[in-house]
Amino acid sequence: MPLRDGRLSHDIDPSDRAPQDACGVFGVWVPAEQAARAEVSKLTYYGLYALQHRGQESAGIAVSDGSRIVVFKDMGLVAQVFDESVLNTLRGHIAVGHCRYSTTGSPTWENAQPTFRSTDDGGLALVHNGNLINTPELAARLDPGELTATTDTEVLTALLAARGEGGALEAAREILPATRGAFSLVFMDEGTLYAARDPEGIRPLVLGALEDRGWVVASETAALDIVGARFVREIEPGELIACDGQGVRSERFAEARPKGCLFEYVYLARPDTTIAGRSVQATRVEVGRRLAREHPVEADMVIPTPESGTPAAIGYAEASGIPYGQGLVKNSYVGRTFIQPSQTIRQLGIRLKLNPLREAIEGKRLVVVDDSIVRGNTQRAIVSMLRDAGAAEVHVRISSPPVSWPCFYGIDFATRAELIAGNLSVEEIRDSIGADSLGYISLDELISASHIAKDNLCRACFDGQYPIPVEQDARGKHLLEATR
Ligand code: SF4
């Protein structure tokens, strides 16, 4: 399906997309008497704005005024979906919001979030980051024909809304222990905001406090900063919280078995976000230092692939003593819909995004630092572009280990067959991208730079050891569509 005009893309080469994150989630509760002043829909809008990097296909906000939930969602970026007049109609004191990249189901309006279900006594709206791996098993608890969308999130919403007298909280206590896979959830009924995180805590979720009584839940701490909320703590793996007039109540629905996503440090999270008390930017710079020690090379200048390679390039330059410089200029304003170049002019497609600074690189031996290699097309084009611009040598350094395995927990990589490291050795990849040398950070050094114990991290895309076993038949993005 063609993507709409005006939607920006991180991707330098559309045929070699960077890993796509699952989604950004946000929720806010303020006392009802503060609803007019707090403007929860606008807080949510700004929270989603801060989380836009986690999903660019659709955006939505649901608001409750205590007696009724209203949902507004559409395809596109947060700033395209909402304007002042729409936000002014979303009045209330509780809100949940979402920006989506589809990791199950197609990028359609029906699959956009928040998902909503009416109940006997009201409604339930839910947003989800992550991927479930037992969706068919959960869907079997519902009557056939009960689903209108094709996502794991729709299944969860239907199950949580099928509540008895105990309401959403009681339904969550029953359903969440039976739910497997990655889920950072924020949901609400008319009076209460809830948040829950899977027992492995694969995708992030944090709790913040507003200055004047009120609570915020968000995928990343950067979203708390932007709405002026104070970071309180991470939602624990296996924890369910409820926020309302009685304060924040916490309970466990499962024992914590922490396996946080290592790739959040490499690429997914914003650099100004903090995970487990450590800034993502600091970790990325440290990875660059370690990369320099593991893969030193004689060179004249270290340049990043902008902007994803920038922090690690800074670290590499610092540890190696090789000057840091800018050798590639990125145009961030190219929409996804630029005319797809044919094979013969693919180089032009990349030129729309990146252009070399000829004077800065001519005759120089370059170290080019990037965060990861997916299919290799982007790095091959960059190496060739730098050589054409007069670089004497091009040494590629990557601040993650080879990505050899797909992710089933909410990040859309290529399939194993499409991942260049799933099929070729490092030397073969070097040859394929045309670099003079190629070095990846080792898995041990990346883990050590994160300051988190190896056993508490998911690193499956690097080592193939999936912390939550995934059956072969639960591995498709379009699983529910296929079973229809
Ligand atoms: S497989 Fe990779 S991207 Fe997916 S959760 Fe694990 S570490 Fe993160």
Characterise this structure:
- Helices cover 28% and strands 23% of the residues.
- It is α+β, with helices and mostly antiparallel strands.
- The protein folds into two domains: 14-259, Glutamine Phosphoribosylpyrophosphate, subunit 1, domain 1 (4-Layer Sandwich), CATH 3.60.20; 278-451, Rossmann fold (3-Layer(aba) Sandwich).
- The longest helix has 15 residues, at 280-294.
- The chain is elongated.
- The chain starts with 22 loop residues before the first strand and ends with a helix.
- The site of iron/sulfur cluster (SF4) has 11 residues, from helix 17.
Give a quick precis of the structure:
With 484 residues, the protein is α+β, with helices and mostly antiparallel strands. Strand 9 (206-209) and strand 10 form a beta hairpin. Bound molecules: iron/sulfur cluster.
